[in-house]
């Protein structure tokens, strides 16, 4: 029996090494910058002869890519529970108010966000939708001065002193550590952004797609 199990394990490893299929996946920009290279490297180590195509786009656009078959798996922010998708939350992370360098870091109550000129992505961006929902639930309106969908451009605009933004902490932690931006904690209540894996319910996932999902789960579980 032991010999049989060892032979089976060897067969699985060898079949993975020989797999020549193709996988197309999607990542939002903030996630791609942070974990994209590690996920790509681990996938290649697991499936060295398979081809991988990685698209980077907003969560709403990645939904469209799933629906028309351009990608098989997407990592998305704050995904709505739509009938067509199988959505599995991976983790949630706190969002912070970010400002230009030179300010003292402080805590800001949720109602205090109304006093800041904000640079946020335009609707229907998932983060904008989440922040608008939180504002409505707490009875205040956002003061949005610019709609900017690019995370990198948003951070540069904030660093230039043109306003503030509300971003996932993971997307700005390096900038805060380097003094490029200042992070202010949001409290009473805080805002949390949920990162999920999304696939189509009526599509059978390939071995490569299942492997990519497992890599994502393992990566964030070990953080």
What order do the helices and strands come in, and which of them pair?
Elements: H1 2-18, E1 22-27, H2 29-46, E2 51-56, H3 59-67, E3 73-77, E4 85-99, E5 107-109, E6 117-120, H4 126-137, E7 143-147, H5 151-159, E8 165-168, H6 169-177, E9 182-187, E10 192-200, H7 207-221
Parallel strand pairs: 1-2, 1-3, 5-9, 6-7
Antiparallel strand pairs: 3-10, 4-8, 4-9, 4-10
Helix pairs in contact: 2-7
CATH class of the largest domain: Alpha Beta
- Could you tell me the CATH topology label of the largest domain: D-Maltodextrin-Binding Protein, domain 2
Number of DSSP-assigned strands: 10
Give the averaged pLDDT, no decimals: 89
The CATH architecture classification of the largest domain is 3-Layer(aba) Sandwich
Oligomer state equals single chain
Q: Provide the low-confidence segments as ranges.
A: 1-14
Morphology call: globular
Gap from first CA to last CA = 37 Å
* Main sheet characteristics: 8 strands, mixed
| H/I helix tally | 7
- Helix and strand run: HEHEHEEEEHEHEHEEH
Secondary-structure-based class equals alpha/beta
Protein name: LysR substrate-binding domain-containing protein
Domain LysR substrate-binding: 18-217
InterPro entries: HTH-type_LysR_regulators, LysR_subst-bd
């Amino acid at each position: 029996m032991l010999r049989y199990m060892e032979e089976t394990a060897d067969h699985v490893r060898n079949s993975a090494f020989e797999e020549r299929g193709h996988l197309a996946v999607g990542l939002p920009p903030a996630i791609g910058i942070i974990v994209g290279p590690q996920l790509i490297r681990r996938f290649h180590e697991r499936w060295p002869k398979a081809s991988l195509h990685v698209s980077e786009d907003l969560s709403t656009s990645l939904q469209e890519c799933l629906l028309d078959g351009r990608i098989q798996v997407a990592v998305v922010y704050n995904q709505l529970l739509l009938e067509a998708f199988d959505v599995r939350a991976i983790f949630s992370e706190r969002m912070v108010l970010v400002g230009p360098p030179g300010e003292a870091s402080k805590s800001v109550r949720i109602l205090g966000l109304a006093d800041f000129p904000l640079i946020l992505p335009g609707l229907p961006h998932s983060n904008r939708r989440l922040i608008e929902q939180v504002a409505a639930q707490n009875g205040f309106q956002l003061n949005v001065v610019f709609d900017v969908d690019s995370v990198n451009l948003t951070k540069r605009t904030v660093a230039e002193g043109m306003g503030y933004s509300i971003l996932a902490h993971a997307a700005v932690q390096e900038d805060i550590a380097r003094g490029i931006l200042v992070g202010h904690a949001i409290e009473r209540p805080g805002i949390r952004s949920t990162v999920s894996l999304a696939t189509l319910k009526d599509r059978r996932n390939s071995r490569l797609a299942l492997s990519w999902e497992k890599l994502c789960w393992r990566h964030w579980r070990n953080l």
